[in-house]
Amino acid sequence: MTAKNKIPFFGLFIILLTFNSCYFPHYKSIAESSMYDIDFSQGKWFLNHVTVNGNAWNDLTTQTEVALSTCLKDSLYLSYGKRKVPYIIPVLNDKNAKEQLNLLKATNSVNYVIQVIGKIIADEIGVINISPHDFNEKSEASISIQVYDIQKGKLIYSHKTTGIIDSENKNKDVVFGKSIETILKKCLEKELKILMKNSGCQKK
Predict the structure, then answer these.
(1) In the chain, where are the structural domains located?
(2) What superkingdom heads the lineage (predicted)?
(3) pLDDT in tens, 44-90
(4) Sign of the alpha-carbon dihedral angle for 186, 188, 194, 200
(5) What residues contact residue 125 under an 8 Å CB cut-off, 6+ apart?
(6) Whole-model pTM?
(7) Structural contact between residues 188 and 64, judged by C-beta atoms closer than 8 angstroms
């Protein structure tokens, strides 16, 4: 093999090595409620700040706001800016939802609450992992979108997408993965697409 032929061969070897060491996330979506009780053509909708493991994530909040504003337009209300509601709405859960929804009902400011809850379950694989190891590693994150009907005082929509990367690296190769932030954004993208379809914003 001549030196000239060795260059393409070496390039091909690098490509094969890279793909052999690449781990891509797989996603699964689960409906946790009825999918057909929401209609974006009616009412006022409040989007709560997106949280991940209890902490606010501005990037994901902006991503959600941009997607929903294309459909809800002036019917979308936020916790900040020109479309800010006068009442501070905490993240709703099983413990506080009933009380908070009753308070919101009394204010007569919005009809529905949309909240996006993220969770990082494992963050063991970075974009590039060069540290040697001979055991399985995993990155896993999920995004849930929930919709509460203030008039009914209950949760009417809940859907979750989970993204997972598993690596089995017994050969101590360099591992090419996806960052946990990328997994969260992709989960949110999938969830927003499902929500938009089921709310009448997009054709199914």
Answers:
(1) 23-198
(2) Bacteria
(3) 999 999 999 999 999 999 999 999 999 999 999 998 887 888 888 89
(4) negative
(5) 23, 137, 138, 139, 165, 167, 175, 177, 178
(6) 0.80
(7) yes
